[in-house]
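Please produce the structure of this protein holding S-adenosylmethionine.
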Amino acid sequence: MATRSPFRAPSLLGSCQCQFTSSYRHADTSTPRVSIRWSSSNSRWKQRQGRDMFAREAKVQGLKSRAAFKLLEMDAKYRLFKPGQTVVDLGYAPGSWSQPPRGVATFQGDFLSPRVRALVREFLSRTGRADKEAGGTMSYIDRERRASEESEEEEGGFSATVDVVLSDMSAPWVQTSGFTSNTLTNPYHRLMNTSGVAFRDHAGSMDLCAAALQFASDTLRPGGHFVCKFYQGGEDKKLETRLRGLFARVFREKPESSRSESKEAYFIALKRRAGVAVDSGDAV
Ligand SMILES: C[S@@+](CC[C@H](N)C(=O)[O-])C[C@H]1O[C@@H](n2cnc3c(N)ncnc32)[C@H](O)[C@@H]1O
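Below is the modeled complex.
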């Protein structure tokens, strides 16, 4: 049997400045409606983790979760990050995409809410201005290049300062049973797992992708990149078409470290076009 070797993770996003991340505070769960014996699925889950090379390797490398390897794989293939960038990581918790947490500001809030998105944009424009005034650590050439990009941005009516927007958001699994099981009540596991109902996961992911894309359209500078998790289904083609309107190149990616039985995949959208924005009325 062929084995898959996880990437080493010397510094995840190490060269980038992760200035902002967002995470969603989960609503309290309701009381159980059905009673199921969870002991067998508990041990199945533990066995799967034990067999899972990426989960084991994440532990060895001190990463918060196996999800880290997905981003490392995508960066190795598409070269997403460069030193000194502003990277926004939406739905960051538990945080393996933002390790190490240097320079990270975290926000809690439901990103589907326009008010939360507006607060994030405001935060970014304030920190962007502060960076500009301070001059930053950019070389002369980088400063000149950025200045010319900014004048293009202003011509296009954007105040865009972000280099990369990442969205690994997925609607968390709402627990309705299994409250006596430590494995199932653990918030970490609910955060990292979906409902398992393909249509529901797909529909939820299309809403989150639409919110993330609108945010990318509002904040990404021309030339910037967008990575977005989605659950495959009937509507993802429409999302891809919207992405193609905003970015020069768009790829579908199923990283090796993403479980093969999961419908999870990623859109990698490279080089945001100047002077183009997504139309919020045209949501997926
Ligand atoms: C699979 S986890 C992300 C894992 C993360 N990339 C990591 O490496 O640790 C999915 C995340 O999406 C977040 N999320 C789900 N719905 C959200 C929403 N409406 N607004 C903001 N975040 C949301 C969850 O809270 C969770 O943090």
